[in-house]
Amino acid sequence: MKWVGMFPGQGSQELGMGNELLNTHKDLLIDTFKDALGWSLDEVINSTDTEEIKKTNIAQPYIFAVSYCYGLEAIKKMGEPSALIGHSLGEYTALALSGYFTYSDALRIIAVRGEEMQKAVEGSNTGMAAVLTSDIEKTLQEINNLNSQGVDIWISNFNDKSQIVVSGNNEDLEYIKLNPKSINSKRIVPLEVAGAFHSKVVSPAKEAVEKTLNEIKVNEGSIPVYMNFNAKKTDAETIKDSLINQIDSSVMFYDQILNIENEVKPELWCHIGPGNVTAGMVRKSISSKEIRTINSLESLAN
């Protein structure tokens, strides 16, 4: 069966996620994790502090590590997928499972990425919000109109045919939340994030991420991975540029879904990792497809 693995980004974290994996993947979640980053993931897994796991520098390697282990379990049970994609941070999970990076090297990049992105948004008074719309083109046009009037709103994610994510100054986000019709939206939902990711606010993070990427060996992956930056299949030569540009560019997830549907023609789409957000995006984009969520060992047993 042709299937696609999809991995979530920041915002999918939950208290205690991955606890059941400590028995089967202690080497990755504890030993290798600590060797790579210098701090212990088991303390985070057992934490009861919801604010701690929201921090970008904690949440990103945590989500990656847990999603990676569930990905290994999914491949063991279902065989090699026909393609992989990830949403923002989840792209690193896809690339590591394909073999472009080792697990340890991916953790190194993510740690720098998380630290630098957190640093970039601190004190920026910015945020993000999901915008639900029945006409994306009209919504984009209205956002351009607002921009020309001095309202700073940027498109961070194209998630599916009825949802984008915008970022901007908190005052401007509050304005569109109170006036959703100003951008032809049915509903606007503020997101629990530290700031305006995938926008010019986090552009300063690119330099350190590029430096780290240049220190790491990139191999040719064994499974096709479609990238957020351009929605195209990557290779070892273009992967670094795509990851650097991904930091402050829109995540083209909707186009990734459509390109895989047209080029791979999979029978099954699987969200792998905490939450189920990517499953929902596919369901809205190509509702005729079989969609599965793998976010526990029990979900794999079915």
Give a brief outline of the structure.
By secondary structure, this protein is α/β, with parallel strands linked by helices. It has twelve helices and eight strands.
How would you characterize this protein structure?
There is one protein chain. It is built from twelve helices and eight strands. The protein is an alpha/beta fold. The protein has two domains: 3-121 and 200-301, Malonyl-Coenzyme A Acyl Carrier Protein, domain 2 (3-Layer(aba) Sandwich); 126-190, 2-Layer Sandwich (Alpha-Beta Plaits). It has a four-stranded parallel β-sheet, sandwiched between helices. A hairpin with a 2-residue loop joins strand 4 (153-160) and strand 5. Helix 3 crosses helix 4 (90-98) and helix 3 packs antiparallel against helix 5. The chain is globular, with a radius of gyration of 18 Å. The two termini are 16 Å apart. The relative contact order is 0.18.
How many β-strand stretches? 8
Radius of gyration: 18 Å
What summary fits the major beta sheet?
Answer: 4 strands, parallel
Helix/sheet category: alpha/beta
- In the CATH hierarchy, the third-tier topology of the largest domain is known as Malonyl-Coenzyme A Acyl Carrier Protein, domain 2
Q: What is the CATH homology-level superfamily of the largest domain?
A: Malonyl-Coenzyme A Acyl Carrier Protein, domain 2
The outline comes out as globular
Helix content: 40-55%
Roughly how many Å apart are the termini?
Answer: 16 Å
Q: What is the topological layout?
A:
Layout: E1 3-7, H1 26-37, H2 41-45, H3 56-78, E2 83-86, H4 90-98, H5 103-121, E3 126-132, H6 136-148, E4 153-160, E5 163-169, H7 170-178, E6 187-190, H8 206-214, H9 239-246, H10 253-263, E7 268-272, H11 277-285, E8 290-294, H12 297-301
Parallel strand pairs: 1-2, 1-7, 7-8
Antiparallel strand pairs: 3-5, 3-6, 4-5
